[in-house]
Amino acid sequence: MGACFSANAKIRGGTSSGGTRSSRKQQLQPEQKNKEPTTQPQQKDRGCKGRSSGLVPCGRRTDFGYAKDFDSRYSVGKLLGHGQFGYTFVATENATGERVAVKRIDKNKMVLPIAVEDVKREVKILQALKGHENVVNFHNAFEDDSYVYIVMELCEGGELLDRILAKKDSHYTEKDAAIVVRQMLKVAAECHLHGLVHRDMKPENFLFKSTKEDSSLKATDFGLSDFIKPGKKFYDIVGSAYYVAPEVLKRKSGPESDVWSIGVITYILLCGRRPFWDRTEDGIFKEVLRNKPDFRRKPWPTISNSAKDFVKKLLVKDPRVRLTAAQALSHPWVREGGNASEIPLDISVLANMRKFVKYSRLKQFALRAIASTLDEDELANLKDQFQAIDIDKSGAISLDEMRQIDSNTDGLVDFTEFVAATLHVHQMEEHDSEKWRSRCKAAFEKFDVDRDGYITPEELRMHTGLKGSIEPLLEEADIDKDGKISLSEFRKLLRTASMSSNVPSPSGVRNPQKF
């Protein structure tokens, strides 16, 4: 949806053996010498033969076979989020009063047959996993002449990392982490049982059902998931940079890649840092392929041997040796009633996680500055999207509608924040490097008040209006550690893998319940 500012750069490309093809182009990729070609032809939609003529989109010419009585059964409420192909709303079932989430996908946006296949696959996946305690529950799929409606369970308990960060330092234990990891492993094991690979396991794709302390964790996003035949492999590169498995980068992956991603998440939950880090996507990939995680740096010496053993067995680079999801569920540290410690984790864990979140905030402010430099032609399409959401035409969207992109936390999202949340920085950079450099400089100067060529902590505090220590925001952007940000460092900040690359899901609404 273009509003998730965290270390989750999307990658997708190529095709798979035993799965369907994706309409999304690859955004990030490592070296690709001697890669295996795909062996699967593109599957054609039975209801929409061939490519769109440009007159009637494929989606409009397709009968999905879904129920046709959505309007009589549900009343649509507030907006939750939006993507390239549609919007997600809260809705109420008229007969029962139950609140649900409804993903409304525009058939006019499904231009090619593959877009139709993507929607059908998403529904098929939700149907296959229906009833699992840790998967957002699928209610039904509907359609009319203009839209496809996917009705799902509404999750209102917030994101995984937000819940952990809300805990007081003294109340976050290994056992808390183990409970979360166990639920993720249950999702992976259930997927694999159905011949399905999730392919994008990360904290942002999990929400809590409610705000209750004992609320279950739910997997909500299957936008990159795909079915695979026994013994077959995927040959494409998909996922999120920090969580991608080595075999994915080698273009020969299967269900084992989900377990690797959960290993990365567990590492983060236990120490607050990523096991593989670099300032560029290529650098991250090299770290994943060549290096081992650090288990010596604080707080690892205080973490139990059982927890370390568990993480190490999930982060084995050879997928043939790595634990399966089912095997991992039997590990003493993670199994129900297991030996995960209830002693509070080192205070540095939450401190590290808070730094991680704050760095994403800095990226938001930088993107906001870039957004303010765009010209009218570049803003035209985004204005249409903004006005469609700005129902009362006030020039601002309420925080309830667009919570995550309110970078100045004033309760409203103005147009500049909206543009910042939907910017494709890499595309802008590649399209016109001279214009990109000029815009970077203009955005930089919005921070650099005294025009001395550096953004100081004082200038950063003045521009952002944030209270408290500004150093955590400065830390990762300040490459040479001189206590300030140069223009070169500012440019690199906008290019680093901490920024979402805004690649939409097959249905067009990524992480639909996050706003």
TrEMBL record:
Residues 12-21 have a biased composition (Low complexity). It catalyses: L-threonyl-[protein] + ATP = O-phospho-L-threonyl-[protein] + ADP + H(+); L-seryl-[protein] + ATP = O-phospho-L-seryl-[protein] + ADP + H(+). GO terms for molecular function: ATP binding; calcium ion binding; protein serine/threonine kinase activity. PANTHER family: SERINE/THREONINE-PROTEIN KINASE (PTHR24349). It comes from Musa troglodytarum. GO terms for cellular component: membrane. Keywords: ATP-binding, Calcium, Kinase, Lipoprotein, Membrane, Metal-binding, Myristate, Nucleotide-binding, Repeat, Serine/threonine-protein kinase, Transferase. SUPFAM superfamilies: EF-hand, Protein kinase-like (PK-like). Residues 25-42 have a biased composition (Polar residues). Its EC number is 2.7.11.1. Residues 74-334 form the Protein kinase domain. CDD domains: EFh, STKc_CAMK. It is found in: Membrane. SMART domains: EFh, S_TKc. Its main location: membrane. Gene3D superfamilies: EF-hand, Phosphorylase Kinase, domain 1, Transferase(Phosphotransferase) domain 1. It comes from the Eukaryota. ATP binds at K103. Residues 377-412, 435-470, 473-500 form the EF-hand domain. Residues 1-54 are annotated as: Disordered. Coiled coil: none annotated. It is an enzyme of class 2 (transferase). It is a lipid-anchor. This is non-specific serine/threonine protein kinase.
